[in-house]
Design a protein that fits this description.
This protein has about 150 residues and is α+β, with helices and mostly antiparallel strands. It has two domains: about 15-70, no CATH class; about 75-140. The chain contains three helices and five strands, in the order E-E-E-E-E-H-H-H. It has helices at about 60-70, 75-105, 110-140, and strands at about 25, 30-35, 40-45, 50, 55-60. Strand 2 (about 30-35) and strand 3 (about 40-45) form a beta hairpin. The longest helix is centred in the last third of the chain and has 34 residues, at about 110-140.
């Protein structure tokens, strides 16, 4: 096996890369050890215990951690959006549920038109909500540095 060092690699061969995933981590208050994919590793008080994209645990020196990562604050906007989407979904269900008897009581001539329209609106609203929830979920799992 060839042993390498930075001086053996041509300066033009190096490329720049950015991490594109987020991780979960906790700063440890005391010295610790953890089983990693490479075996048992130790961390100092103040170092971080990180959980990788496959659920693997590993220690990260606090100095390196702060140079590499920044905390992502809980996104209250996403939570409010979820609440609003749920409200819209419930309103859509109620509209569809009550529009069918309403259409029948107004006039049999227009009952099917009103029922069909309410059904289309309900289905369109549901598909739109599914799309928005997928966008939100995608945004949560793929936060990238700017």
């Amino acid at each position: 096996m060839k042993e390498v060092s930075e001086s053996l690699i041509s300066p033009s061969a190096w490329r720049r890369y950015r991490k594109k995933t987020t991780i979960e981590a906790v700063q440890m208050k005391e010295e610790f050890s953890v089983w990693t994919l490479e075996g048992k590793m130790r961390g100092k008080a103040g170092d971080f215990l990180a959980k990788g994209i496959e659920g693997e645990l590993y220690p990260i020196d606090s100095e390196i951690f702060f140079k590499t990562y920044e905390e992502i604050a809980p996104d209250l906007h996403v939570e409010k959006l979820r609440e609003r989407l749920f409200a819209i979904m419930m309103i859509s269900i109620v509209l569809v549920y009550f529009s069918i008897p309403l259409g029948v009581s107004i006039s049999e001539k227009y009952a099917y038109v009103i029922s069909f329209s309410a059904g289309v609106i309900g289905i369109a609203s549901g598909l739109f909500l599914i799309f928005l929830l997928a966008v939100i979920k995608h945004g949560e799992t793929n936060v990238q540095e700017g």
